[in-house]
């Protein structure tokens, strides 16, 4: 008689969930056996930054380098605008002072007024022209590096998805015993997207902001080192605010995604076992559990919004406070007659104050907004570590490897034999399923495996088909 009991599936891998779904509790006699605590999954080290581009071609690498050059040029050009804004400001101030003196009755100022007006028009037109050219240059460089890095990231992301899918299809069943339900789909959809984001415009934007930071501070110190040093006091404050804001937002986002994922897992299991749910009448209980996860996610999101509002408010407070500091100390420098270059310039002016202020502000802002871009790259390195581990994994039973022994056709004779086999599934290696079993399957005959559910019938078939290799437990 052939046993018609359900085949014994491999033990389900532990997903580390905090709730239990429907299923019989294991018992030993009349005493309930407590559920085993899930084992902690080994931490996978993140991939290095350069390893993110392992599937890029040489042509794409050269294009990326060209994009980095364009990003550096665009970032350095942004603070240069402060020089022309400073010249425009000083032109307005000088012409306004001459005009005011002429209106006050000064004959000398009245004589200088036409020349001052001509010089003002010429300087304003020249500065406006330079600003236009600089703006066009920033537009072109931005288009170049954004286009290059987005396109190359799409191509690399496509290759990573293909390699990951091919590697997954190559794996033996032992690999899937330790992979959670839906994990592969999550890797393809989420992790590859994170990697693609980390190797796209985020890299070029990071260099853009670093270049803007360096350029801004170089211009500021070149124009007035005294005022630049004073305005640098806002750098640590704004950097601290940006770092704390990024830390809190990352923490709250992680908690929110965790609660949403737990709720989604519960909903997925409830829907997949909808018959059992209906039979036991647990709809309201499961709905309450799901609502609890969503409520936790909402609480975390409210905290994240509050932290973001406070952070942005403090950040703009620092900006406006720096306005007051720049104008106050700049006025002091002008009144003292202390210049930018003590050997060449003897008098500070309003244009210098505006130039230094805008250059420091641009450089500091570039450093503050650099954190989110770097965070995307760090997340990409972490996600790539998981993907590349699977891509580089060579299974013990490699279906894509043509080498190895090949059985000869058996025509009417021969047999299949298991001799003193001991086996445990990789996901529960400490729980043996077969213990020192020996069995023979003659060719040309029908052999029935009879036993209770969980006695190892399907495990023997899996070993015979070499889904797994037997192992002797020590």
Largest sheet, spatial ordering of strands: 1-2
| Average of per-residue pLDDT values | 80
Termini separation: 36 Å
The Rg value, from CA coordinates, equals 35 Å
**Uncertain stretches of 5 or more adjacent residues:** 1-36, 340-347
Helix content: 55-70%
Total beta strands: 4
Largest sheet: 2 strands, antiparallel
* Coarse structural class: mainly alpha
Give the helix tally. 12
Set out the fold topology.
Layout: E1 27-28, E2 31-32, H1 58-103, H2 107-170, H3 173-177, H4 183-198, H5 201-223, H6 225-231, H7 234-272, H8 274-280, H9 283-336, H10 350-368, H11 370-392, E3 415-423, E4 434-442, H12 457-464
Antiparallel strand pairs: 1-2, 3-4
Helix pairs in contact: 1-2, 1-5, 1-10, 2-4, 2-5, 2-11, 4-11, 5-6, 5-10, 5-11, 7-8, 7-9, 7-10, 9-10
Task: Describe what you observe in this structure.
Pfam families: ABC_membrane, ABC_tran. InterPro entries: ABC1_TM_dom (IPR011527), ABC1_TM_sf (IPR036640), ABC_transporter-like_ATP-bd (IPR003439), P-loop_NTPase (IPR027417), Type_1_exporter (IPR039421). The chain crosses the membrane at residues 61-85, 130-151, 203-222, 228-250, 305-330, 350-371. Residues 1-42 are annotated as: Disordered. By secondary structure, the chain is mainly α. It contains twelve helices and four strands, in the order ββαααααααααααββα.
